[in-house]
Amino acid sequence: LVLSLGYLHLHQAAAKKYTEAVYAGDSETAISMIYLSEQDKKEAGLPKMLSGKIKAEIAHRKEFAVKNGGIKEISVGEPKYDNDKKFADVSVTVTFKKSEKPKEEHIRLIKTDDGWKLKI
């Protein structure tokens, strides 16, 4: 059984949702979609440091989106998996309303018990 959201499979939907959140300035959603191992979570200061860096990047990308008229379209390519299908690399193309040049992104995802998460 393959679950999908519209025409997107779950890993593609996760990549699109993350990209939408980033360009909308929704750091809470974006950060909730990032995978941290149990070891990472326990490392003193690491989650807070990553959160700060991610919020700064999201603010930058939101500003970029606003300057370019907002998002016109987000398209998600076919994933490339590792042998175990635990990791997926997904290409995302973001087209802006006032820009002729789309922005290409590559998102690495990891399959977790909570669904697909961004692997940084």
CATH architecture: Roll
How large is the radius of gyration? 15 Å
Shape field: flat
What would the average pLDDT be, to the nearest integer?
91
Number of domains: 1
Which class do the helix and strand fractions yield?
alpha+beta
Domain DUF4878: 14-118
Protein name: DUF4878 domain-containing protein
InterPro entries: DUF4878 (IPR024267)
Organism: Snodgrassella alvi
How would you concisely characterize the structure shown here?
It comes from Snodgrassella alvi. The protein is α+β, with helices and mostly antiparallel strands.
Outline the structure in words:
The protein is flat and about 45 Å long. The chain starts with a strand and ends with a strand. The strands form 2 sheets. Strands 3, 4, 5, 6, 7 and 8 form a 6-stranded mixed sheet that branches. A two-stranded antiparallel ribbon has the order 1-2. It has helices at 10-24, 27-32, 38-42, 46-67; strands at residues 4-5, 8-9, 34-35, 71-76, 80-81, 87-96, 103-112, 115-119. Helix 1 packs across helix 4. A hairpin with a 2-residue loop joins strand 7 (103-112) and strand 8. Helices cover 40% and strands 32% of the residues.
